[in-house]
Amino acid sequence: MKKIGFIGLGNMGMPMSENLLDSGFDVYGLDVNHEAETRFEKRGGQIGRSMEDLAKFCDLIITSLPSSEAYESVYLGDEGLIRNSHANSLLLDTSTVAPESNEKIAQAAKQRSIQFLQAPVSGGVVGAVNRTLTFMAGGPKETFNAVYPIMNVLGENIFHIDERIKSGTLTKLINNLFIGFYTAAVSEAVALADKQNMDLDALFDVLSVSYGQSRIYERNYKTFIANDDYEPGFTLKLLRKDMNFVKEIIEREDMHLPVTDVLMHIYEEAEEAGLGAKDMSVLYEHIGEQEISFQSKKERVK
Ligand SMILES: NC(=O)c1ccc[n+]([C@@H]2O[C@H](COP(=O)([O-])OP(=O)(O)OC[C@H]3O[C@@H](n4cnc5c(N)ncnc54)[C@H](O)[C@@H]3O)[C@@H](O)[C@H]2O)c1
Q1: Is the beta carbon of 74 within 6 A of some atom in ligand 1?
Q2: Hey, what's the torsion of the CAs at 75, 16, 10, 81, to 10 degrees?
Q3: Does domain 170-301 have CATH number 1.10.1040.10?
Q4: Active-site choice (166, 172, 237, 278)
Q5: Per the database record, which ranges form the 6-phosphogluconate dehydrogenase NADP-binding domain (predicted)?
């Protein structure tokens, strides 16, 4: 497997495709954002081929896309991967998209006897850069085995969940529901500590060896909050996308999950406040600002 197409050269796709280049593969990048393509070319990647061309020409195509709409258009469009791939093609999607979309693509791939694996990833941009990603794959074990060597170049924990194409996505959405909880918890708890004039670095050190510790506390505090820098990372908008998929599942199952309901509302508000393109840890700032506006309202009432 030498020729690999990579579609979606964003925060995750760019470092993953660069790691493939560094491991000696011929990588053909494609992105609707030409700046991203130019950066990829400067890094040694090949660009300039259409999607149809990539589908006909590559042994494996990997996608890393920001929405179900982009995913369905890349796979199901006239110029897309399903229509144009050859019989020995392998298609690997690493995006987090709606489970129903996974099933739609798998069905279309099956009709053309194309091997398709849905393997969302976790570990963030740091994991993509350092090749420490976790892959959660759903789909045929045979396809998993065929793509395993490549996932193993890009990550270090590679799981086959089960044969259902959406099983990796379901695993990932549960993971991201936890991330939604933890991010909100870190934001509120650290805002409270700040209000008490506590030394936030010292607090982090103590809690890191206590039950208040979490990987999201470490990520959100150390990389973003402590540096007052919210360049993504994982955007609040993408987290909200995943929380919306979770919401759809909850509604379908007719479940009542009250804390999740509140979370959905909090992230919606933060995105409406214009924070969607920042890292999700920016929720900390948003909570701080809301606190200030609540205070000034109280002042006005006095
Ligand atoms: N950022 C993270 O920490 C992280 C972690 C795990 C999983 N994910 C998931 O990985 C996926 C990508 O995330 P990201 O953070 O890299 O997003 P991103 O927005 O940074 O990158 C997506 C890229 O896809 C490109 N794109 C959009 N539509 C396209 C199309 N039709 N054809 C070709 N290119 C197209 C965009 O221009 C962009 O460069 C998402 O599904 C996200 O939920 C992200």
Answers
A1: yes
A2: -10
A3: yes
A4: 172
A5: 3-160
Q: End-to-end distance of the chain based on CA atoms, in angstroms?
A: 71
11 lines ligand 1 (CB under 6 A): yes
Which amino acid is located at 211 in the chain? Y
Considering only CA atoms, which of 176, 281, 278, 182 is closest in space to residue 223? 281
Tens of pLDDT, residue by residue over 100-123, are: 999 999 999 999 999 999 999 999
Q: How far apart are CA 277 and CA 20, in angstroms?
A: 27
- Is residue 93 helix, strand or coil? strand
- Pocket lining: 32 vs ligand 1, CB cutoff 6 Å: yes
Mutate to test the pocket of ligand 1, among 6, 9, 11 (most ligand atoms within 8 A of CB): 11
Cβ partners under 8 Å of residue 130, min gap 6: none
Query: What SS3 class is residue 26?
Result: strand
pLDDT for 48-105, tens place per residue?
999 999 999 999 999 999 999 999 999 999 999 999 999 889 999 999 999 999 999 9
The span from the CA of 256 to the CA of 87, in Å, is: 45
In the chain, where does the domain assigned CATH 3.40.50.720 lie?
3-162
